[in-house]
Amino acid sequence: MFNKNFKLIIAGLIIAYAVYQFVDGNIGNGIALILLSLIFIFLYFRNEIILLAFLRMRKQDLAGTQKWLEKIKNPKAALTTKQQGYYNYLHGIIFSQKNLTTAEKYFKKALKLGLTMDYDIAMAKLSLAGISMQKRRKREATKLLQEAKKLDKNNMLTDQIKMMQQQMKKI
After folding, report:
1. Measured distance CA(15)–CA(24) in Å, rounded
2. Model confidence pLDDT, tens digit, residues 17-76
3. Domains of the chain
4. What is the helix, strand, coil percentage profile of the chain, to 5?
5. DSSP character at residue 67
6. CB 151 within 8 Å of CB 125
7. CB 95 within 8 A of CB 103
């Protein structure tokens, strides 16, 4: 909704007014304003549109996810680097159902920009391995599968990794 820098300016103004409220003797108002400013600081680090897009993705509504992502007009200006990574990650998931070449481009860009969670990095590498496997690039797919296996610390992707390794043997 708001530009990332605008969120920090709003938070700063609210904190300044909270300090004024503390000095004026209205402690309750000051505490409430500090809590309000924390919302804008949180939204600086976690973009609200990407959060809503992830909620649509959880419901497996790819069209709804696409609609939310289209609301971000200029991702480079509106998002931090990690948020741009997740923006591209979500686009990669969407396009993995439609166009593998475009999905590969988005996943590579997401990994380059950086993802926060190891699980997300593993999922992106696993998806890239699947795309490489379909494009008959066995060496690259094997390397990506090994990297995904190292990153999957909670063993959430072991079934998918084993299935892909079985398919690799058939190629």
Report:
1. 14
2. 999 999 999 999 999 999 999 998 888 888 888 888 989 988 988 888 889 888 888 888
3. 1-45 (no CATH), 47-170 (1.25.40.10)
4. 80, 0, 20
5. H
6. yes
7. yes
